[in-house]
C-alpha cells in the first residue's frame, strides 16, 4: 500500500511544495517568445534579491555541478594559480573541476568535520601572492560543516583574488550577502532549499567577475560559457533552450521565499538545525560537527552504530529516508536534511523515526527523549519570538 511513500529527509532532493508542482504544470510556451521573456525577467529580479546582489544570475539547465563547472571554466584562465579549499567530498569535487583547467591548483584539505581556518588561508595567500582564484564550499554537504564565507571573502578580496562559492546546499538556508561580502560568484542548485526538482543550476555573477570574463579569453566550454548567459540576460532570455517548466516552478519557489521573507527563511532553517542538534545530543549520539558555529543550517551529520541498518529500518519500516556517509564516512554516519519545504513538525517526525530505528538496532534509549529535547527548543524559540 505504501510502496511509493517516502518522506525525504536527505540533503537533496528535497520535498517539492504543491504550489511549485502546480506551477510546473503551466502550459508550454515558446522559449523565444515574449511570454518567456516576461517570465524570465521576473525570475531574474527576484533571484537578485535572494542572492543579495545587483549582478546577473545565469540559469543553466543542469545540476549544481554544472554551475560549478561553468564558474570555473569561465573564470579560471590558462596559467592561473588557483587555491581550492576542501572540507569534504564536495570540496574535493570542486577541486577536481579546477584540475581539468590549464591552471596550477593548490589544495587546502581540511580534516573532515572541521571548517576552513581563515588564518591558514591568509598565510597561503601571502606565500603565493599570484593566486588569482579561490574556490570554497559554503556548506559541505558530506560533513555538515559551514565555512565562514564572510571572513574568507574579506581576506580573498584584500588579496585581490576572485572568490567562487559553492552554495548548493546553503543557499537561502544560511546568510550569504554576495555584494556586501565581496563574493564574486555564487553557485547553487534547484533541488535543495529552493524546493524544486533537480535540473537547474543558478550562477550569480558579481561585477568583478563579469569584468574578468569579458576581458579574458573565451571559456573552454561552449555550453557553460557564462559570458553567453550574461549577455542574453539583458534581453531576458537564455543562450540555449531552457527547461521552461522548471523556470515556472522557480518563479513560484522564489516568490514563496520572498513572501516568507529571506530573513525569516534563514531563521527557520537555523531553528530546524538547533532542534535537530538538541534531539541528537539528548539521545547521547555524537554530532560530527560539535561546534554550533561551524554547523550547517541545512544538514546535520551524526555518528551512528550500524548506520546503514538504521537507515534501512527508517526507510523500509517507517517510510522516511535519511542519507548515509560518503567515502571514508560510508556506514559510519547518517545525514539528516532539514532544508526547503520543511518545518518543525518534520524535524520531530524524523527524530521519532530515528529513535525507533535506534531501539531496533540495540541502542538503550528512552523513546521520546530526542523528540522532547527538540520540542523544548521550538517552544523556547516561540516564546522568545512572542
From TrEMBL:
One Pfam short name: Aminotran_5
Keyword Protein transport: no
Residues spanning the signal sequence: none
EC number: 2.6.1.51
Keywords: Aminotransferase, Pyridoxal phosphate, Transferase
GO molecular function, one term: alanine-glyoxylate transaminase activity
Alphabetical list of InterPro entries matching this protein: Aminotrans_V_dom (IPR000192), Aminotrans_V_PyrdxlP_BS (IPR020578), PyrdxlP-dep_Trfase (IPR015424), PyrdxlP-dep_Trfase_major (IPR015421), PyrdxlP-dep_Trfase_small (IPR015422), SP_NH2Trfase/AEP_transaminase (IPR024169)
Keyword Hydrolase annotated: no
Binding, substrate: 335
CC cofactor: pyridoxal 5'-phosphate
Segments forming domain Aminotransferase class V: 22-340
Modified residues (N6-(pyridoxal phosphate)lysine): 192
Top class in the EC scheme: transferase
GO biological process, one term: glycine biosynthetic process, by transamination of glyoxylate
Family the UniProt entry places it in: Belongs to the class-V pyridoxal-phosphate-dependent aminotransferase family.
Record's protein name: Serine-pyruvate aminotransferase
Amino acid at each position: 500500500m505504501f510502496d511509493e511513500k517516502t518522506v525525504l529527509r536527505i540533503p537533496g532532493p528535497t520535498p517539492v511544495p504543491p504550489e511549485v508542482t502546480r506551477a510546473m504544470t503551466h502550459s508550454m510556451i515558446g522559449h523565444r517568445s515574449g511570454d518567456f521573456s516576461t517570465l524570465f525577467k521576473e525570475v531574474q529580479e527576484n533571484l537578485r534579491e535572494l542572492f543579495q546582489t545587483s549582478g546577473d544570475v545565469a540559469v543553466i539547465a543542469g545540476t549544481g555541478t554544472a554551475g560549478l563547472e561553468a564558474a570555473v571554466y569561465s573564470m579560471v584562465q590558462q596559467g592561473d594559480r588557483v587555491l581550492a579549499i576542501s572540507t569534504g567530498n564536495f570540496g574535493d569535487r570542486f577541486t577536481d573541476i579546477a584540475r581539468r583547467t590549464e591552471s596550477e591548483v593548490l589544495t587546502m584539505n581540511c580534516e573532515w568535520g572541521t571548517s576552513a581556518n581563515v588564518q591558514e588561508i591568509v598565510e597561503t595567500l601571502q606565500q603565493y601572492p599570484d593566486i588569482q582564484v579561490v574556490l570554497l564550499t559554503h556548506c559541505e554537504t558530506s560533513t555538515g560543516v559551514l565555512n565562514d564565507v564572510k571572513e574568507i571573502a574579506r581576506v580573498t578580496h584584500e588579496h585581490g583574488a576572485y572568490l567562487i562559492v559553492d552554495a548548493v546546499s546553503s543557499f537561502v538556508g544560511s546568510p550569504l550577502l554576495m555584494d556586501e561580502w565581496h563574493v564574486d560568484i555564487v553557485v547553487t542548485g534547484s533541488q535543495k532549499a529552493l524546493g524544486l526538482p533537480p535540473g537547474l543550476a543558478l550562477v550569480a555573477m558579481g561585477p568583478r567577475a563579469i569584468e574578468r570574463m569579458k576581458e579574458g579569453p573565451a571559456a573552454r566550454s561552449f555550453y557553460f560559457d557564462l559570458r553567453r548567459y550574461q549577455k542574453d540576460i539583458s534581453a531576458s532570455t537564455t543562450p540555449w533552450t531552457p527547461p521552461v517548466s522548471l523556470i515556472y516552478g522557480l518563479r513560484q519557489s522564489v516568490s514563496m521565499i520572498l513572501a516568507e521573507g529571506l530573513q525569516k527563511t534563514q531563521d527557520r532553517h537555523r531553528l530546524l538545525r538547533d532542534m535537530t542538534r538538541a534531539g541528537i545530543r539528548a539521545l547521547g549520539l555524537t554530532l560530527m560537527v560539535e561546534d554550533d558555529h561551524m554547523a550547517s543550517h541545512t544538514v546535520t551529520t551524526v555518528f551512528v552504530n550500524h548506520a546503514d541498518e538504521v537507515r534501512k529500518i527508517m526507510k523500509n519500516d517507517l517510510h522516511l529516508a535519511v542519507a548515509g556517509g560518503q567515502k571514508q564516512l560510508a556506514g559510519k554516519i547518517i545525514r539528516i536534511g532539514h532544508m526547503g519545504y520543511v518545518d518543525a513538525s518534520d524535524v520531530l517526525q524524523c527524530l521519532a523515526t530515528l529513535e525507533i530505528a535506534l531501539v531496533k538496532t540495540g541502542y538503550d534509549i528512552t523513546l521520546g527523549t530526542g523528540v522532547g529535547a527538540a520540542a523544548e527548543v521550538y517552544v523556547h524559540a516561540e516564546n522568545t519570538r512572542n
